[in-house]
Design brief:
This is Transcriptional regulator. GO terms for molecular function: DNA binding. InterPro entries: Lambda_DNA-bd_dom_sf. This protein has seven helices and no strands. The chain has about 140 residues and is mainly α. It has two domains: about 80 residues, 434 Repressor (Amino-terminal Domain) (Orthogonal Bundle), CATH 1.10.260.40; about 35 residues. The C terminus is likely disordered.
């Protein structure tokens, strides 16, 4: 789930990319709806939420916005990639915990034991399952 900071950054990129004749949510919704055929029309209130940094559109709508604005979908959603080259971690070194990861861990810890076990089994299957294979057997 995007943080309020990420939503605000998206809104800034969107506003900076819009043509000068788009003055607000009503104009944005009207122009967007002319281009979007993937579902129900977007309301002016929804477009206003995009501009205000309250929400980020779903991927189908992001693709339409990016094509219209001639921007990369990833850039529009997440912004530019980090500057500089990421240094690979040394053997045994772990990435520092992010606030999001700490929040996720606390939510997982608060789950009832049965649900927590299901999540742990899923994670083990996704990330640890390859280690459990013997001689190429699934």
């Amino acid at each position: 789930m995007p943080t309020s900071k990420e939503k605000a950054a998206f809104a800034k990129r969107l506003k900076d990319s819009l043509p000068k004749d788009i003055k607000g949510g009503t104009d944005l919704a009207r122009k967007f709806n002319l281009l979007y055929s993937g579902g129900p029309a977007v309301s002016p209130q929804t477009a206003h939420k995009w501009l205000a940094g309250t929400t980020i559109p779903k991927s189908d709508k992001l693709q339409v916005l990016a094509a219209w604005l001639q921007k990369d979908v990833h850039w529009l959603h997440y912004g530019p990639p980090p500057v500089g080259k990421a240094k690979p971690l040394a053997r045994g070194e772990k990435y520092p915990l992010s606030p999001e990861m700490i929040e996720l861990a606390s939510r997982l810890a608060g789950l009832p034991p049965r649900q927590r076990n299901l999540v742990e089994e899923m994670i083990t299957e996704l990330y640890g399952g390859a280690d459990d294979q013997i001689d190429g057997e699934p």
